[in-house]
Amino acid sequence: MTERLIPAGLERRKEDYGLITGALGYVDDLSAPEGRPAPLYMAVVRSPYAHALIRGIKLEAAKAAPGVVAAFSGAELVGHLPNLDAIVLPGIKKPERKLLAIDRARYVGDPVAVVVATNQYAAQDARELVKVDYELLPTVADPEAALAPNAPLLYDELGSNIAFVQRSGSGDIQAAFEQADRIIRLRVVNQRLAPASIENRACMFDYDPATEQFTAWVSSQRVYGSRDILAHYLGLEHRQIRVINVQVGGGFGAKARFMGEEVAAAALALKLGQPVKWIEGRSENMQAQAHGRGQINYIEAAVKNDGRILGLKVRSIADLGAFLAGAGAIVPIGTLRMLNGPYRFAAIDSQVVGALSNKVATSAYRGAGRPEAAYVLERTIERVARELNLDPPLVRVRNFIAPGAFPYTALTGITYDSGNYAAAMKLALDLGEYRWWRSEQQARREANSPKQIGIGLATYLEIAGDGGVPLPGAPKEAATVRIRPDGTILVQSGVAHNGQGHFTAFAQIAAEVFKLPGDRIEVLMNDSSLPAYGIGTFGSRTIQIAGSVVYLAAQAAREKALKLAGQLLEAAPDDLVMEEGNITVKGVPGRGISLGELARRVEAQPDLIEREAPNPVNGVPIEGLAAWRDFQPEGPTFPSGAHLSIVELDTETGEVQVLNYIAVDDCGRVLNHYLAEAQVHGGLAQGIGQALFEEIVHDENGQLLTGTLMDYTVPTAEQVPSILTGIIETPSPRNPLGAKGVGEAGCTGGPPCIVNAVLDALAPYGIIEIDMPLRPEKIWKLLQAAKNGNLDQPRRYPPAVFLEPESQPEAVERPKTFVFE
Q1: What span, in angstroms and rounded, lies between the C-alpha atoms of 267 and 279?
Q2: Sequence-ordered list of residues with C-beta below 8 angstroms from that of 488, at least 6 positions apart, any chain
Q3: Is 803 helix (H, G, I), strand (E, B) or coil?
Q4: Is 514 left (phi over 0), alpha (psi -120 to 50) or beta?
Q5: CB of 501 within 8 A of CB of 19?
Q6: Is 369 helix (H, G, I), strand (E, B) or coil?
Q7: pLDDT of 807 over the 70 cut
Q8: Is residue 163's pLDDT more than 70?
């Protein structure tokens, strides 16, 4: 493990003071710009039914209510606008979906109308006066039931509830299974999760008819992407739109793209010509913001008796919800891409079926498909170890890709950049005192203690930098770095900051390039008017891509300064030294010039340096002593790691306590250990939350049973254990910083690590299966069944039935059901 010097002024995060003191506000804190009227407030009318025709909407009573300015049905407000956007790939059926529900509501919480009033409370009161005539339709909430031939259809025009069938893998899968000593089968579920940000969705929009300028204040993960979406729906030029990202109380993938309500609020601002604000309520958020995860996986592993896995078959059902939202369709396809993990298999054959159901759509949530793949692999590895009575670390070592094999092309077609999986696991075992805990576990088992010890391990592989699926046609990431007349450095980035510490990281990068203290660097981002560009803050991409852009722009600005100083000092640039804000001639410290003086001279005489061509974002040349640079990596990076957890299980109550958690992560070159460790901690809070507490639950009629934070359990600080972190660094060759991502490490490694530990504690009772979340009552019931001899385990799953895509000839015989027979 290595330590790096942090430049002076960056010992603490630059962005925290304003938040801690309350000086920085969120969207809800904003007032209208000077000279503009006070903002109006939008409230959304939502369907109480999971599936119903909308026969009519009566708005008269709402329009007459005190403080109400306007009310619109979905058809009136957005019926003429384009359909809701989503990322799709060839072969994916995209149902027709407007920004608001027009003729049919397809989930509880589906927005059908809006009310606009002078304050939020008047809008919410008037919302209750809107009368909607619904005709109830049959509902299908379970994704497996949705695949049955006689299931109620969400979209008649599709002919089924299947949005896509995608297959992946290579190698001779038949030979792998023929050569196996045994076949191990299991079923695992990644339950639906609510992003549960501290701040719900929030936005304020203003269109000034006098200037024809549209301004958006948003809580978002994409500044320029938000601008592009608004231009698309509102019919405005990009130059007319400015997007400002206000403080964001958590995004986690769910704020990467607008859903219908945000654009509806923007359309209202354009229509009414004054500011409109929408602040989502918590219950609304649980109902209508896209959920995460939602996968069912059936697994078959072809195994040798020494623990080597020859082949893997995985059939997945992805619960897409009622429509395709954002990255919802490509997230489960990303799971297929990652099923090779850190392991060396002979063959993989996998398939995912995207199922539509009467629930809100699923989309990207921290990890977005990669945690699901890691869960499949690590639960399988643990089952192999159990059935063969082998030590779980040994099974992993026998299947790991060797450190010298990189770049390594996986059976799923992607090429890993670098890694050292065995080293990460060894460090985790050493830090976690693995062998001591095994002896303690054995002692408690022999004593028949009511407090049993479980030891869980998970090694994971992540993909970072393109979110698993690259966005076609997107401009390169770009930034501008400027030397100012006072000698300070200004970094202008296209990143949408969500609290991850990017201000500190970018200042550190520039400080290292210019050999300046951190307090001499100013970083600006969160504003589409800056001379920069960013795809968005997601997929653990920011440091490795946006950070690389800052590095390249800083290097270019530094070279310009050295070249100009060489001209003025009559010295070759290679003979100059830059430090502490001055450029001096080597060996002649009295002969030099300050960075500030260079910038002032360029301002007075612009022809002293060559002007850069107009940047592609706004067509404006880069003036002064500054440089614009853009960057697109040659491919994604592949962070990895090994996590170890020690849990104590109370067999009398089913309660689980996490005693120790060790996270060893490889995120390439680590620029700032404080920031990297914080990302691991945050991801683990969500990963442990999924393993033990969190779950979105609907009944058979599609009614949401976990609609508040009284029902949906988010872990408290007391429930998140202390975490010991370790670092393995295998720099990536795919960006100039050598960095990989780390933001999703905890939620990728955490769930299988915790579940494996709990299953390890349950092993003496013959319990080998349990689905997340591992609530005490669920564990207690299994223990009672085991003690009474009524345990229905192990369940044996027959071979998977793969669904043939519709492109296959009709003569192909298809199964009557698409699960198992």
Answers
A1: 16
A2: 520, 521, 522, 596
A3: coil
A4: alpha
A5: no
A6: coil
A7: no
A8: yes
Q: Where are the alpha helices (DSSP H) in 189-307?
A: 223-234, 260-272, 282-288
Residue 269 tokens read as 């601002």
pLDDT tens figures, 403-458? 999 999 999 999 999 999 999 999 999 999 999 999 999 999 999 999 999 999 99
Cα–Cα distance for residue pair 193/267, rounded to 1 Å: 30
> What would the two tokens of residue 153 be?
């259809």
> pTM for this one?
0.95
pLDDT tens-digit map of 22-62: 888 999 999 999 999 999 999 999 999 999 999 999 999 99
Position 804 scores a pLDDT of 67
Q: Are strands 131-136 and 52-58 parallel, antiparallel or unpaired?
A: antiparallel
The DSSP code for 391 is -
DSSP for 167-203? EE--S-HHHHHHS-SEEEEEEEEEEEE----SS--EE
3-state secondary structure of 458: strand
What is the identity of the amino acid at 355? A
- Point out the least confidently predicted range of 171-175, 316-320, 813-817: 813-817
Q: Are strands 241-245 and 213-218 parallel, antiparallel or unpaired?
A: parallel
Q: Write out the two tokens for 499.
A: 């609290």
| Total residues found in the chain within this entry | 821
Cα 681 to Cα 687: distance, rounded to the nearest angstrom: 10
| Distance from the Cα of residue 621 to its chain's centroid | 35
Inter-residue contact 350 to 312 (CB < 8 Å): yes
DSSP label of 403: G
CA atoms within 13 A on the CB side of 462: 32
Q: Quick one: pLDDT band at residue 814, thresholds 50, 70, 90?
A: very low
φ/ψ (deg, to 5) at 27? -55, -40
State how far the alpha carbon of 462 is from the alpha carbons of 344, 361, 378, 440, 640, in Å: 16, 24, 13, 33, 6
Angle, to 10 degrees, between the axis of helix 392-399 and the axis of helix 421-431?
160
Number of H helices, E strands in the chain: 20, 28
